[in-house]
Amino acid sequence: MVVLLLLVLPFVFYASNSKATRNHNRLDRLIVWLSAPVQFLVTATLDGTDRVLTRYVLLMNVERDNERLVAENARLRSALDRGEEQRRENQRLHGLLALHDQAPDAGAILARVIAIAPTPLFRSLRVDRGKKDGVKLGAPVVNSDGAVGRIAALNDGYADIMLLVDANNSTDVLVQRTRARGRVRGTGSDRQVGIDVQYLARTDDIEPGDVLITSGAGNVFPKGLRVGVVGDIERRAFGLYQKAKARPAVDFDRIEEVLILQPSWPAATDFEMKGPRAAQ
Known about the structure:
By secondary structure, the protein is of the alpha+beta class. The chain folds into 2 domains: about 100 residues; about 150 residues, Beta Barrel (Thrombin, subunit H), CATH 2.40.10.340. It has 2 helices and 12 strands. The strands form 2 sheets. Strands 1-2-5-4-3-12 form a 6-stranded antiparallel beta barrel. It has a 6-stranded antiparallel barrel with strand order 6-7-8-11-10-9. It is rod-shaped.
C-alpha cells in the first residue's frame, strides 16, 4: 500500500497542479496546500545553489582577470617609466650634442658618471672614460648647463673630475654684463657647496644676478661657458678687491653625463696636476 501510494501520489500532484482550466475540489486544494511548501523549498534550494555556483565561477574569473590586469598594468607602468627615462636621457644628450656642435674643432668625449666622492673634503666624480678613450689629465669637463670641472686623476678605463665647487679648484671668469674679470674658487665644505668670486677690482661694476662665464684665459675652458650667478657681494671700506658669492650654474648633485673636451696642450704629468683623491 505504501508503494502504491508513492506511485499514485505524483500523478495526484500533477493533476492537482495542472494548468488546465477547471475548478479545484477539496482534494485538489489539500494537495496543492501540501505540495506548495515542498515546491518552494526545492525551488529556493536550487535557485540558491545556482546563484552560489554562478557567483563562485564569476569570482574565480574576476580574480583571474584581476591578476592578469595587475600584471599588465605593472608591465605597462614599467614600459612607461623606461620610456620617460629614455626621453629625459635623450634631452640631456641632445643638450650635450648641441654644446659639442658649438665647438666642433675642440673634440669631445661623452662620459657617464659611475661614482661620487664619499667625502666633502674633495668634490669629485668618477666617469667611465680614461686614457684608452683619449682623455687627458687636466682636460676641461662640461655639460649643457655650463662648466663642471677638470680631469684630476686618470686611469686606463676611468677618470676623476675635480668639480668646480671643490676648494682646490680655481677658474678665471668674466662678468657677462660688464666684462669685469675675476676668479672663482670652490667652497665645497660640509656646510655649503658653492663658489666664491675673488680678485674683483673695487671699481668693477657687479650686481646680484649677474652671470659669470669662463674667460678662456689659461687655455682650459672655452670662453663663454656659464659658471654661475652672482649672489651676495662684499665691499669693504679698504682694499683693492671686492668679493662675492655665486650660485653654480650646474646642479652637481644631478650630473649623469658630461663632455670631456680635448685640450690643445700635451697631457699633464702627475707632478704638474695636483687634484683631489680618487672618487670611491
